[in-house]
Amino acid sequence: MLFIAVTMIFTSCGNNSGSSNESITKTNDSSSQSKNSNISETKSSTAISDVVSHYLHLKNALTNDNGNDAASAAKELGSTLTKVDESTLTPEQKKVYDDLKDDIKEHAEHIGANGSNIEHQREHFDLLSKDMIDFVKATGSSTTLYRDFCPMYNNKKGAYWLSETKEIKNPYYGSEMLKCGVVKEEIKPKG
Predict the structure, then answer these.
(1) Is the pTM of this model over 0.85?
(2) Order of strands across the sheet with 145-150?
């Protein structure tokens, strides 16, 4: 009887120990999944920041009347856009991203392929900017951005763009009318 009681106690303790190890394993697995999710979200946030950064580089190149630099920035923008990890986006963000990514990529490709035709680049930059404004409003930005407006562009229909500074520097006219425009909205970082 004593032998059976001792065996039951050791078996019971062994099961608790196994249960404890199993619990630790589950906690470690859960912790690893959480870390992997955070890494994935960080990579996606970095990709989104890089997309915005390449857009701003493109905008600044057009502001400086530099079609070749604009083409290079547009190619980088298109390439970086594919690195956004959609699984880290909220359903609302994913819907906006899915709706815009092909158009953003197409406009970036046109700008990238036309380094010697800055007017054509600016036409696509107008369309790209509309999409990028929606993209940034959905996914957020790591820095404050300004939604600027030029009332003269496109036969006085006007055009918007995003800028990292309050100071107006017009990418649609460059040195021809550098200060033409007005800040319409300040877009603060989400978080």
Answers:
(1) no
(2) 159-163, 145-150, 182-187
